[in-house]
Amino acid sequence: MRPASGSPLARDAMAYVLAGGRGSRLRELTDNRAKPAVYFGGKARIIDFALSNAINSGIRRIGVATQYKAHSLIRHMQRAWNFMRPERNESFDILPASQRISELLWYEGTADAVYQNIDIIEAHDPKYMVILAGDHVYKMDYERMLQQHVNSGADVTVGCLVVPRMEATAFGVMHVDETDRITAFVEKPADPPGIPGQEDMALASMGIYVFDTEFLFDQLRRDAADPESNRDFGGDIIPYIVKHGKAQAHRFTDSCIRAAEEIGEYWRDAGTLDAYFEANLDLTDTVPKLDMYDREWPIWSDAVVAAPAKFVHDEEGRRGHAISSLISNDCIVSGALAKRSLLMTGVKMGSFSCVEEGVILPYCNVGRHVRLKRVIVDSGVRIPEGLVVGEDPELDAKRFRRTESGVCLITKPMIDRLA
Q1: Is 205 annotated as belonging to a binding site?
Q2: Could you point out which of 61, 237, 287, 289 has its C-alpha 20 to 30 Å from the C-alpha of 42?
Q3: Which Pfam families match (predicted)?
């Protein structure tokens, strides 16, 4: 599905991205950065998908609420997203938790992260609010969701994925009627409700909500006055509206953006090491499930000033080459092999080394005679000469973070402990 034309509703909307989460299931990968700031797909950060969707949908007013270890995230947004022009009624506000309401409290929940900044939102005077999670990988036209919201007369419209029913146990799940009006919202149910006419499937929340702005403010103020509330959209705001108002489900199928070669809808919560690893490797397929080369719906990111990638040496056993891999700017593959891997900006591979199914974050140095298989290497790590990972599961588990599927996360402190 291609973009909606004109985007008239998007021009009256503000996108508000919730980007304060740590993402603890990514383990050491988020020790020094929030999950939305984690590198993805060669040169992007995870948050770039939600922000790019907003820009491509025609939304020109954006706010981003940050909290956990936000320095690298804020620095990235300042560099990559500083092109908005106030004289064209465009804005990009970075909103760190700053004790605006209370001197004792940071953001208490997702709803509170919006409530504390009502005055800033009011200054932009948007008619509609599009609330987004900043830690998912997907392409979506929010204009289509806005159109459904207005046409249905809903108080809130909730973005939903259609998933096999028993795979929905980790999500907030919508129970809907035949018109997709939400009749119940259940958080992580053991026995998820099915979709009418598709009882083996369920509607899982994407963490995307559309509101009329004034209605949202009323709900946030009501919720803030409730001492029993957890100040959360999924846990408090949405269930209340389902019970007392009109909540409508919006299916991702209706607004997913797909390039000509993309077969199905692609949405990933790259929230575990295994999911992050697989989502990155998805991009190496001959026909990738997510097309990062789609010029009609680009994923905007930091335009790093760097030299092109370089491959050197061409002799038997020492040939610089890559197969089914994404090689970013400033990489040097010197007499080495990258196979079904992503080398992000500034990675250097020494002679006689091999990386197979590797997600190598920026500015890593892979020494000579290194063999890495099914690895995630954190940014700035220097892999010592001759290190082998991915061939001895027991040894790998002693030295690195190894998942049940055999993916090893390698960080600088882990390498330092080998010395």
Answers
A1: yes
A2: 61
A3: Hexapep_GlmU, NTP_transferase
**pLDDT more than 90, % of the chain:** 82
What is the reported pTM?
0.94
Long-range CB pairs of 402-408, under 8 A, 24+ apart, other chains included: 403/272, 403/273, 403/274, 404/274, 405/274, 406/374, 407/273, 407/274, 407/277, 407/374, 407/375, 407/376, 408/374, 408/375, 408/376
> How many Å apart are CA 274 and CA 390, to the nearest integer?
15
Give residue-wise pLDDT tens across range 374-406.
999 999 999 999 999 999 999 999 999 999 999
Question: Sign (positive/negative) of CA torsion 175, 14, 264, 29?
Answer: negative
Q: What is the pLDDT, as a whole number, of residue 219?
A: 98
Would strands 371-377 and 348-349 be described as parallel, antiparallel, or unpaired? Answer: unpaired
The number of angstroms, rounded, from the C-alpha of 127 to the middle of its chain's C-alpha atoms is: 26
Using alpha carbons, list the distances in angstroms from residue 337 to 341, 364, 370: 10, 15, 10
User: pLDDT digit string (tens) for 129-172?
Assistant: 999 999 999 999 999 999 999 999 999 999 999 999 999 998 99
**Residue reference for tokens 């403010």:** 217
Q: Is 107 annotated as a binding residue?
A: yes
Tell the residue number behind the tokens 């800033």, with chain if given. Answer: 120
Contacts of 365 (CB under 8 A, 6+ apart): 347, 348, 350, 381, 382, 383
Ligand-binding annotation for 7, yes or no, is no
Q: What is the mean pLDDT of residues 231-244?
A: 95
- The alpha carbon torsion through 161, 164, 166, 168 (nearest 10 deg) reads -10
Residue whose tokens read 């922000």: 51
Burial (CB < 10 A; 0-12, 13-18, 19+), residue 360, is buried
98 is in an annotated binding site: no
152 marked ligand binding residue: no
C-alpha torsion sign, points 173, 178, 182, 185: negative
Structure token digits, residue 25: 């299931």
